[in-house]
Amino acid sequence: MTAADFLPPTKDLDDLAAAAKGCQGCDLFRDADQAVFGEGAGSATMMLVGEQPGDQEDRAGRPFVGPAGRLLDRALAAAAVEREPLYVTNAVKHFKFTLPERGKRRIHQTPTRTEVVACRPWLFAELEAVDPDVVILLGATAAKALLGNDFRLTAHRQEVLRLPAGDDVPPVDPTVVATVHPSSILRGPQERRDEAFQSLVDDLRFAASLLNTR
C-alpha cells in the first residue's frame, strides 16, 4: 500500500490536503500526530520541497514553522524572495522520530527510501496541481525523492535540473534546483553557520533568477 491508494479523484489542493489526513500508505502515520500537507498559493510559480515535518510542524499541522522554517524565512528574506506567494511542502508528510526516553524531546529520524517512495504520490499530485515554474529541493531526501536515489546534492548546487521521465512522474516540466535543507545549517558547526547560511541565500537567489528565464 502507498499514498496512491488514498489519493482523491481530483487534483484540487484542498481535496488533496483533506485526503492526506487519512493516509496510511506507510507506517509513519501510526506515531505522528497528523499528516502535514503543503501550503501556499495554488498558482505559485515557485515550490519548495523539504524532507518531512519536524516536531513543531507535526504538532501545528503546518510545514516549516519550527526552527528550520524560521531560518528558511530569514534566508528567503535575504534573497529578496517573498514566502507568501510560494508553495512549501515536504517529500514525506508524517514526522518520523525516535523517543529515547519517556518525556524527552522527539528526535528526528531520516525517512527510508521505502517511506519516501510510498509518500511520493502526494508530492507528485502537488506538483501537478500547482504546476510551478521552479522547484527548489531542500536537502538530500527531497532531491532523491524527485531526481533518483543516486543524486548527489553537493555536486549539483546552482545547476539547472529537470525531472526525470517516468510513467508515474506528473506531466509538468519545472526548472529544478537543489540546495541544502535549513536544518543542516542548524545542526552544523557554529563557526561555519554564517557561511552555510549565505550559501543557502545564494542558492535561493539563483533559483529566483530562473523565474525570469522561463
From TrEMBL:
<dbReference type="GO" id="GO:0046872">
    <property type="term" value="F:metal ion binding"/>
</dbReference>
<keyword id="KW-0411">Iron-sulfur</keyword>
<keyword id="KW-0408">Iron</keyword>
<dbReference type="InterPro" id="IPR005273">
    <property type="entry name" value="Ura-DNA_glyco_family4"/>
</dbReference>
<dbReference type="GO" id="GO:0051539">
    <property type="term" value="F:4 iron, 4 sulfur cluster binding"/>
</dbReference>
<protein>
    <recommendedName>
        <fullName>Type-4 uracil-DNA glycosylase</fullName>
    </recommendedName>
</protein>
<keyword id="KW-0378">Hydrolase</keyword>
<keyword id="KW-0234">DNA repair</keyword>
<comment type="similarity">
    <text>Belongs to the uracil-DNA glycosylase (UDG) superfamily. Type 4 (UDGa) family.</text>
</comment>
<dbReference type="GO" id="GO:0097506">
    <property type="term" value="F:deaminated base DNA N-glycosylase activity"/>
</dbReference>
<keyword id="KW-0479">Metal-binding</keyword>
<dbReference type="InterPro" id="IPR051536">
    <property type="entry name" value="UDG_Type-4/5"/>
</dbReference>
<keyword id="KW-0004">4Fe-4S</keyword>
<dbReference type="InterPro" id="IPR005122">
    <property type="entry name" value="Uracil-DNA_glycosylase-like"/>
</dbReference>
<dbReference type="InterPro" id="IPR036895">
    <property type="entry name" value="Uracil-DNA_glycosylase-like_sf"/>
</dbReference>
<feature type="domain" description="Uracil-DNA glycosylase-like">
    <location>
        <begin position="37"/>
        <end position="205"/>
    </location>
</feature>
<dbReference type="GO" id="GO:0006281">
    <property type="term" value="P:DNA repair"/>
</dbReference>
<keyword id="KW-0227">DNA damage</keyword>
<dbReference type="Pfam" id="PF03167">
    <property type="entry name" value="UDG"/>
</dbReference>
